[in-house]
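Hi F.,

I've been meaning to write this up properly since the lab meeting, where we talked about keeping a consistent format for the predictions we share between groups. The idea is simple: the sequence comes first, exactly as it goes in, then the structure tokens exactly as they come out, then a line or two of notes. No screenshots and no reformatting. I'm using this chain as the first example so we have something concrete to point to.
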Amino acid sequence: MLSLKNTLMTSTLTPALWFVTATRAFAANFGPGLNNLGGTDIRPTIENVITTILSYLALAAVIVIVIAGIRLIVSSGDDSAVEKAKKTILYAVIGLIIILLANGIVMLVANIATS
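Output, unedited:
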């Protein structure tokens, strides 16, 4: 059985790993797009910026879900705190779904625009 200390440690390390992964993806994807600023086609740069922003928003939504989960665990059965944590998780999941749909729309528009 996991102790509260192990649960909190795992919950705080997961967003850190997401942040490192997102930062590496940002450097890999956005770096080449910067070279296009002086060229005639700025579309890849705009696509990279929007995709990167959506990635960071998704990361923020995951962090909010983790924090709300910790609040749910720590609430100790307090009904108002449990309801508040559940609502926070619900709204964060809805936000994450919207972010993923927005990312899909950006990819779709980018594929249509390039063909």
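Notes:
The helical segments are 4-34, 43-74, 79-114.
The longest helix spans residues 79-114.

If this format works for you, I'll send the rest the same way.

G.
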